[in-house]
Amino acid sequence: MVVSAEMCCFCFDVLYCHLYGYQQPRTPRFTNEPYPLFVTWKIGRDKRLRGCIGTFSAMNLHSGLREYTLTSALKDSRFPPMTRDELPRLFCSVSLLTNFEDVCDYLDWEVGVHGIRIEFINEKGSKRTATYLPEVAKEQGWDHIQTIDSLLRKGGYKAPITNEFRKTIKLTRYRSEKMTLSYAEYLAHRQHHHFQNGIGHPLPPYNHYS
């Protein structure tokens, strides 16, 4: 696996530095190979979605994770920008996307295994796209049709959804490597690696977040 806990730590570093006005963290040690990637933030014990944005264009991981950490935390239109007081309750997931395959049948993918990206023409004649990462359908308990229909609504399709319309969808399936870290795990990881990595900002004090 390419994805690592260090990538999630880097995302936390980037967000922490941004929210507290510190200089951005130094170049990380993990690979800088290009991958399509998503950064997902969840919050609280029930792990509610707090932001999730990424790109299907392969980006070098150092700049890509830096960019999408802040985009997903601050610019996901479904949520207000993240604040300092939310940090201690956050979970960060990094997903690196692989194995893209265009399929002829919109049902030709496996729940819990594949992420899907759909392209469709909406009722106004405009081309739209939308995606769910591999874990979404399984977490929601959806079957293929429920996932497709939810994705159409996510993509802004407002007309009634018929089976004939579903057959016009262009679907790409893909897989992902995913790593998730809680804020507490990030703190523990940073305490352990602080001196080796030369982080350019003070560690968040534990008592501040008790």
From TrEMBL:
Domain of life: Eukaryota
Cellular component, GO annotation: nucleus
SUPFAM superfamilies: AMMECR1-like (SSF143447)
Pfam family, one: AMMECR1
Gene3D superfamilies per UniProt: Hypothetical protein ph0010, domain 1 (3.30.700.20)
Domain AMMECR1 intervals: 1-190
InterPro entries: AMMECR1, AMMECR1_dom_sf, AMMECR1_domain, AMMECR1_N
NCBIfam families tied to this protein: TIGR00296 family protein
Name listed for the protein in its UniProt record: AMMECR1 domain-containing protein
Species of provenance: Bos mutus
Upper classification of the organism: Eukaryota, Metazoa, Chordata, Craniata, Vertebrata
